[in-house]
Design brief:
The chain has 186 residues and is mainly α. 73% of the residues lie in helices and 0% in strands. Helix 1 packs across helix 4. The model has no long low-confidence stretch (mean pLDDT 91).
């Protein structure tokens, strides 16, 4: 095995194990290393932790769906409509890949670099124009994305509390519309 391929081999091994597993949370670092034919220590060397590697593998598994999100950003419709469509598509993807995304929930929420608010910040700014400061727009973007993440990762509790089953497309739409319309008023 050539050293420059070890990182990719670990990533591919994690992706393979994810797609074969009924419970992604049970995949061990030893299994990944064995599948990759790599030393166990290479996981921490290249990814800092098994959780970071699993998260990177999940990101790669669903990366092809990012095109759909970019297409929404480019649509020639009002910013608020684009924002709602973007958040809905993110929610749909999260639910569609929930067998993977739930396995990385703890890492995503507590350790992974925050990326999602940056994707919607331009749309939030466009919706709010000059009526809100940069900081306010950033806070709203953060609220929208992190609240969505918590709701999806704690979907059973959210359903009990709110009555909305976000595993159903129509109820996800209700949630996203309510969130956006509450934080961004015309």
């Amino acid at each position: 095995m050539q050293p420059y391929n070890v990182k990719e081999q670990l990533l591919n091994a994690a992706m393979k194990l994810l797609t074969e597993s009924n419970d992604a949370s049970k995949i061990t670092a030893r299994q990944i290393a064995a599948e990759a034919g790599a030393n166990l220590a290479m996981i921490n060397y290249y990814f800092a932790s098994k959780d970071a590697l699993i998260s990177a593998a999940v990101d790669k598994l669903i990366a092809n769906r990012a095109v759909e999100l970019e297409e929404i950003k480019e649509k020639n419709v009002p910013a608020k409509q684009r924002l709602i469509e973007f958040l809905l598509k993110m929610a749909d993807i999260t639910v569609e890949y929930s067998q993977y995304t739930k396995a990385t929930a703890s890492y995503t929420l507590l350790e992974k670099d925050i990326e999602e608010p940056y994707h919607i910040l331009p749309m939030v700014k466009e919706c709010l124009g000059d009526s809100h400061s940069e900081t306010e727009c950033r806070i709203i973007s953060y609220q929208l994305t992190t609240f969505s993440q918590i709701v999806f990762f704690r979907s059973d509790d959210f359903r009990k509390y709110s009555g909305l089953d976000i595993m159903k497309a129509e109820e996800r739409k209700t949630l996203i519309n309510t969130m956006v319309n509450t934080l961004i008023q015309d």
